[in-house]
Amino acid sequence: MTPAKADPLSVIAALRRPRLLIRAARAGLGDYDRTRDLRRLVRTTEVPGPDAALRRLLDEEGRLEATRQAGDASYSMTRHVDVMIAVMAEAATLRPACAAPDLTAV
Description:
By secondary structure, the chain is mostly helical. The chain has one domain. The protein is built from 5 helices and no strands. It has helices at 8-14, 19-28, 34-41, 50-70, 77-99.
């Protein structure tokens, strides 16, 4: 699980996951539909903004990773891949906003 105040992009940069999980998530990025998929993945009726969605997705991913590492039979690889797809897509929407230069100082 992620600390509530931690920067989601920093948390993502520090993640270390199996290569196959990451490759599967990258392959699924093209089919990601934010409106359809986020409601299902974060279990809500309203689609949250990218920052809130990313925080909730990272919490869910942390739970999935803990379940995977524990060897728990309830682990769902399919759900883990789906959550990682959403994490990657939501992070991509935040990166441009974070990297935008401050033009007010010019």
